[in-house]
Structures are given as C-alpha cells and as structure tokens.
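the three lines:
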Amino acid sequence: MSVAQLAGGRVAAVVRKAATRDPLVIAAVVVVVGVAVMAVFGQALAPYDPDAIYVGPVSAPPSLAYPFGTDDLGRDILSRVLAGTAPSVIGPVIVVVASSLLGAALGITAAWFGGAVDGIASRVIELIFAIPGLVLAVLAVAMFGKGLLAPTLALAIAYVPIVARLIRAGARQELGKPYMAALHIQGVGSAAICFRHLVPALLPALFAQTTIGFGYAMLDLAAISFLGLGAQPPASDWGVMIAGGQPALIAGAPEQSMFPALFVVLTVLAVNVLGARVTTWAERGER
Amino acid sequence: MRTTRITATVAGAVAALMFLSGCTARDDASPNTAEPVDSSKLVSSLPAATGEVDEVTWALVEGEPSTLDPAGDYSLAIPNLCENLLQISPDFTVEPGVATSAEWVDPVTFVIDLRDDVAFWDGTPLTADDVAFSLERNRVETSAWFPAFVLVDTIEVTGDLQVTVHFTAPDSTFRDAIAGAAGAVLSKAFVEQAGDTFGTSTGGVMCTGPYVFDEWTPGTEIVTSANPDYWGGAPLVGTLTYTFITDGATLANALLAGEVDGAFNVPPASRDNFAGSDSGRLVLGPSTASYSFGPTNSTGAGADPKIRQALSLAIDREQFIATVLHGLGEPQSTFTPPFAWAGMEAADQYTAAYDELAAPELDLEQAKQLVEESGVDTATPLVVAIPAGAKELSQTAAIIQAAGAQIGLTIEIDERQPTDFSQIFFDPAARESIDFVATVGYLDAPGVLGYAQQFLLPAELGGFFNWSGYSNDEVTADLQTARTTLDPAASADAFIAAQQIFAPDQLQVTLASAYQTTFLQNGLTGVTTSVAVYSSPWALHLGSE
Amino acid sequence: MNAGVVRTLAGKLGELALTLFLASVVIFSAVLLTPGDPVAALAGGIRPTPELIEAIRAQHHLDDPVWQQYLHWVGGVLTGDLGTSFVYKTDVAALIAPRIGVTVLLVLYTAVLIAIFGIGSGVVAATRGPRADRAVLIGTSIGMAMPTFVVAILLIWVFARVLGWFPVYGAGEGFLDSLYHLTLPAISLAVLYIAFFSRITRGAVVGQLHAEHVDTARVRGIPRSQIFRRHVFLNASPQILAVSGVTVAGLFATSAIAEQAFGIGGLGSLLTEAAARKDLPVVQVISLLLVVVFVVLNAVADIAIAVIDPDSAKPRRNA
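prediction for all of em together
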C-alpha cells in the first residue's frame, strides 16, 4: 500500500470513525447534506415562486401555508430561504476552494524550495495576512462596485495565508521525515514525490482547514451582503434577507430576518463541528 | 453519554432560537396595519410652541446635503436657514415674507418690494442688490431653477428695497416660483467672497432665515442656532442640530428610542411602531409627493405609451398603497398632485377637472392586449432604475417587476448609488441603458405647470425630462397659453385642455400620492407638517408645548 | 531585557516596516486597477470640460509616472494630507478624525468583554470540572457560529421590542453615556470572539495543568491559587496573546457591521458608506489605517510574548 493510499484512506476512516462515535457529527453531517440539497434543488423545492409578490398576505407570521411567514411584499420566506441557499453557499465554496488551491501551492512551493523562495513566499503570506479579509473585500467593492463577485475573489485571496502557513509547516515537517529521503535515494522523481507522496500526506490537514474556512467565508460574505455591499435586493441571498428584514424586526415581525439568520448559523455551526472533529481525528491519526 | 447530551443541548438551543425567531406570539394580530387614513384628518401644521427648548436634534432622511446652497441641493436644513422672497404657508398658499409685496404691475412687469427690517446673520441689512443678485444667480441655464426664469428679460434694482423684473411675456408661474427656492435670498457680498466654497462645510452660507448656520461636520452633523434678530421673531429653539440617517430601520430605532427629536419623511414601514410609541407621535400631512416611474429614452419600449398603459393596468394601486405606504397615501390619477393647486385661486376648476380624469384601474386582460398591440419585443428585458438604499422604491421596483411578469414583460431592476442615479438626470448616455426610472417626486411650491412642462414640452421650451420625445402641438400650445395667461381662470382652462389630451399617455405612470409624514417627540410642537417644509422655515415655531 | 528580546524587537521592526510598505503599495494600486477614469469621479458626476479634465489631472498629479504618484500619496499620508474625498469633496482627514474616537472606544469595550468572558470562561472550563467544561463547550459551539450581524439583530429585536434596557441607536455623548450606548454593539461584536478565546484559553490552560513544572510546584506544596497564577496562567498567556493582536485589529474591521446595525457614526460605517459610493480615497486611507493597526498590534503582541517567555522568541510561529 502506497503512502498516498494510506493518506487517502485515512480521511475516509477518520470520518467513519468519527461518525460512529459521535452523534453530534451525524447531526452536523445531516445539516450539511441538507444544505447541499437545498443549494441544488432549492428552487425546485420551493412551494412558491421565491420572487413572486403577494403569494400570501404581507408580513404574515408563520402558518401552515407559509411555514416561515411572508415578507414585506407578501413573498414566501421559506421559498426565498430555499432559493437563497445556492447563492449563499456558492460564494464560500469558491472562497475555500480557490484559497486552498492557492494557499497549498504557495505553502508547498515555499517548503519545497526553501531559501530565497521561502523568504519571498513568507513575505507575501505576511503581507496578505496584514490586510483583514473584510477590509480587502470592502476595498474590492470600492474598486469594482457592489455585487458578490469582487468580495468573493477578495476573500479567496485574503484566506490564502492561513492555508499557506498551515501547508508550509506541514510540508516542512513531512519533507523532514526519513521516508522522503528514502524516496529520493530510490530515485523517485521530484514531481512524483511531490504529487504522489507529499500532497496526499497534507490532505487531511487541508481538508480540515477548508471545512473551517467555509464557515468563516460564509459569515464574511453574509456580513458583506448585510452591509449592502454584496448581493443586491431583491435577490434572495441570506445576508440580503437578514438586512432587508430589519424594519420588520422592530415592527414585531422577526421572521424575515431570523429564518435566514437561523440557516446561516445552523450551516456554520454544522460545518464548524465537522471541521473541529475532522481536525481532532486527523491529528490523532498522525500520532 | 457526554456527546449525546451535547447534541441534545445544541439542538435545544437551536430550537430556542427558532422559537424566538418565528413562533413567538405577536403583540397584535398583524404587524402591518395598512388601514387607509381619512384624508380630511390630515394636519398641515402643529400648534405654535409657547415654551423654549435648548436643543433639538432633527434627522435628515434624505441624508447629508452635498451643499447648503439653495441653488445646489434639496435639503430640509436649507429652508430654516435661507428664506425665499415669499413664504409658503403650511396649507400651500403663498404669503408675504421677505418681500412685503410681489405683484404684476402690467402684463410683463413684476415688482418686488422688500421689508425694511430684514438683516443677514452678520448684521448687514438686506438690500435690493442682494435680491437682484440672488435671482440672477438662478437665471443661468445650469441652475435647477432656470425654468422659472425662462420668460424673464431683465432684473432691475429700482430702489433700495425694490426690484423690478421685466418679462418677454406674461408668466403666471413666476410669483409662486419665487416662494420656492428659485426665490432664495442670499448675501451678495458673502457669496462673492466665498466663491467656490459657498454652501460647503468650510464656506457655509449667509442668509436671513430664523436659524443661523454655525458648523457643519461632514458625515456627522450640521449645527444651527436661533437667529435672535429674525424679523419674524426669534425661534424658541436654542440649537437645532441636523443628523443624517438614511436607513429607515435605523431612523425608526433612533426616533423610538428618543435619540432624535424628530424627522420628516419617516419610513411608512414603521407606521405601527410610531403609532404605538409612548414617547412621540406620527403626524400625517398633505403632500405633493408621489411615487411614479417614467421613460428615460425615446427608442426603448418605455417610450411606447401602450407599454406604460399596460404596466399601469397591471399594478394594483390599493395593494401598492397598503404594502409600500402602509396605508399612508392615496391613489392619484395623473402626475400633477391635487395639493399642488390647493392654495391657488382657480383651485376649484383644477379639482373639478382632476375628478373627471380616469382613475387608475386593474385590468390584466387589457394590459396583455396592449402589450401585444405595441409590437414590442418582449424577449428584451426592460430596465427600471432606482436609487440604492430606498426601501420603498426597492419595493416599488419589485412590484413593477411582478406586474411586468404578469403581462409578459421581463423587467430588471438597476439599483444605483446616489451619484450614479443623479447622473440619469443630466447625462443622456446614462439613460441609454435603462428604460424607466422610478422615483418619489414632489413639488416644493404651488403650481400645476411644473411637471407638465418638464415632461411634455420640447426640450428647448423647458421639457427637461421629456426624454421619450413626447410631442403634441396642441398640448404645447395649451401649456404655453396656461403659462403666459395671468388670469387664473383662463390659465386653468388652458392647462385643463392640455391635461385631457396628455393624461391617458401616462408620461409618468403615477402609482400613488404619499402623505407627508412627521415624527416628533411628545412635548415638542410647532413644526410644519405638510409638504411646505421643503420651502418654508418649518422650524420657526418649533418649541415646547 | 536580554539580547534575545532586543533581537526580536529589531527583527520585528524591520518586518513591520517592510509589511507596511508592501501593504501601502497594494492599497495604492487599487486606484490603478479600478476600471474607469478617476477624473470622472473627481469631477463629481458632471460631464467635465477639457479644461476641467486638465485642471483635475494636474491637481491630482495624474500625469506623473506611477511611482511618483505613489510617493506623493504616501508622502501625503505621512504628513497628514490624506487626499480629497470623491463624494464629500473635503479632506479625508476631516472625515476620519471625528470618527476615530467612537470606533476605538467600541473596540476597547469589546476587547474588555472578550478578555473577561472569553478568558474567564476558558479558565472555568479548564479548571472547574467536566460539568463546567461541557457547559462552556456548548456555549462556545453556538457562539462560534453567531456572527456579529445575527447577534446585532437579535439584540435590536429584544431590546427595541421587548426589554428596552439599552439604546439601540447611536453612540451617545460623554464617556458614560457612550459606554451605555455602545454596550449592545460591543456585545454583538464580542460573542464570536468570546467563544474563540474561551477555546484557546481552555486549550492553553489544560496544556499547562499537566506540565511538569506545575506538578513539581504542587508537590512542593505551593497554594493552588498561586500555582495557577504564577505557573499555569502565566505560561498559558503567550498562546492567548498570540491571537490577541489579530483579534483586536480584526475588531476594527468588523466594527463596521456593528456600527451599521446600531447607527453609529464611526470609522467602520464610514468605510462601508465610502465603499458603497466608490469613494476610493476614503476607502484607501481607512484600509491603510487598519493595516497599520493590525501590523502594530501584532508586533506588540509578539513583543509581549517575547518578554513573558524569552524562549518563544527563537522558534517563532511558522518559522
């Protein structure tokens, strides 16, 4: 069995082991799968057209016909939450995937070559780290105008240092292990060592970080929409819905803000639980 | 089992949040009463105050002005600082003010006589020179008030306290216009000295109004104080501070918490909170404000009257008023709002003609048919531009969008930042990419011709907003006659004749008229509560009860 | 102060200067990367005449080479000339100055809340038995998923609608009134970080409780409270300090959300508003300011760690 298979098998084993021993993880998996289903089929699952106005009375409290109530234009909040899942989830996915790829590339490059390359890479990491993600996202909005694209890309860059640092440290540790030297002596090519041995060994840590990063990215993007800089009304993005429901909130109709907020919180909570468990098990697996 | 218990607790906490969020009992059956208001109960001003108040903080919903120059921006801070030649009473009649009289002495000569006891804040007395200078300043093509002066030939100082305006033709609108900001009185010496900085936070303004400009901290507040030497008597409020709160929810919070003493144009969405407040009260007054949308260019689908008529037929006005205005408004049949002529001599004539106009109605079948007849390519989406951040207009746009969907028109919403939005009004290129612009408009001074001239006349005759290229010789002639006829009844006849022709074309699809809303803390009184706030010193009688 | 500390200090200062320089270049280049001509923004919406364009280009040095423009901008920032706002047409310095105070107060207030409740609950979790540990774990699990804007709207709803104990708008006047006004905004900012600090503190303290020197101290019969203060907490503090700099600096950025929700006229709300209106000069200056705060606070935290625990100065994180 190669190192790659070992490492690859480890992730699955970790999850399996975690799930059998921890009902909280099962709950988190259920939520994450649920949100994923909502993201893919939300539009189809919606009982009403999410953008249709006056499908019910205006600002109605939750009822059988409108389980989450209706908003200030008589739109069905459940339908809007369902339809809003995809736009609320895609952004964070792009952020973590892009930042993981970039961060891993940067971290591995720095660890692999060391010396001057490492110095430059570390400086770049330091630099990006010094600009808070929210600030970079706001700067992007000031440059390119409102909408989710610019802040998403800005956050993808802002999240690079965390991944890069983690991967760089992990890669240095892994490269220092005896089997790496053995592989070199055996005449295994650099590319093969890197992609067949080093990268797979780093995957569990990367996976854990990606999971945790997703939660933060979701909060950051929702915050940007809440500030009015991201998705724009009447889009059924969760952050937009939370912000848009504020007048109703003080008028005694909290459901317009609270239900989308609940889904943000639940999703992040579930992802955090998964991330924490995966990290723990990944660390134990290493010992 | 440790983990099970954690699961149960987390689940419990989530359930509690859920309970808090949606399932709590309501204080009242529905948070959204949108009951219609009896329009005869509208109040145009509160009883004058009798007691002094040290400090009043007023929130400006329209946000921070770009300038306090009356010629430069519309801000509710300006009318208390800079007076116009004539005053507009809360009931929209025009009364003497800085000018004791302003009358036609012959069909083309208009004489303005000034009070002899008016001084600027710095103590220099107001002279005819200042008035002539102020009027000339607005008589340039780049001024927003230029339309009021198109028929003016010369402005002449004919005495220490007299200005005579010579016209190329009689102008029935001029007297009412100088009761608005077109007649704002500024200190000539100060304006000339301040140059480019006039009206800015550093340069300030110099006027004769009941409140003196003290300080403007950009982004934070504008501080003004009582003018002890005001010719109409010093106000009872020592310091009147303006803060800028554009967000409706924030404003409602601030008012209900008593952090701000009052505000105009408060969000209708918080109607019930205001009505239920122990600390203050919501006052409804008559207004010329109306919600509407109109075409922005002559080539798009918006320029086709059939499309506008179709959209008009697809929008349920009662529902619009209940949803967007929470009942604080009423249907309006054409773009000229009835309150515009409430104080005019020929008011009865205008009202009778207005009552004969077809009221807006809902008829989807006819609307669909009109779309079909128009031959417009329904595959191309129509774009409605709205200013960003205005919840009511965002709702309006969503309603227009939904109406379009019902009759086969795809409508997109383009929310624009203030600077990008205002670009629409002076840059034809900015109008190319949009089909409609939805706004809340109001008339700050009495007069029926304002909108009609701007929307219907050719550009060179004053049709500044006639972007769809409307052209009807009869309408043009009638409107010109209405303007150049000094006899009120004859002028009204001409306008009414034009209105019968242009009203069905819906150059603006008028959705509703909105009442003037004012929220004021208990204990305070004396403010104007009608749309006259835009052009009269509305805080002159403000103070404690 | 020993040589290690001095070396760390010097190294830190060098790093700090380099990072600030690079960050200023990145932020400056935002103007160059922005689509559209800055002249249009500077002209303020009116269609500019060729003469006006000329005048604006000259006034803002737009015809100079890029590096000269950069030097001019940075030089201005260093000498207090922060440029002119596209929207307000006034000095950026005049816009920012009156707003710094309230944001600093809000951040400090929040930091105090985080220190008390975050570190406090972490210590409790680590030392007061499994029951307390579990309770804190549950609390922090939820807290870590509660973003500022969700806490803010919950608080606004509860206090505006139901309780009315705290104001939900504005920053108040005078110190005590400001604290009173900033209570809910500070709580909304603090919740997520309290959970985060609680976790970090718990981990650090648990790690120390089982350390050798603590066992030795116990055997020597030193009182529990003294062991905790001198051995456990002091040795756990570098781990807490390590995230403190990042956290406080991050609070300056996230305060924008609380300021927006509670209608506070601070730096964050100015940043948001300026971004929405594409007022780049204001956004640039505030961004740079936040980066400076970030870099300086991080350096201060690192130095503090080096002072407490000179050994940590050598194997630095991710070195």
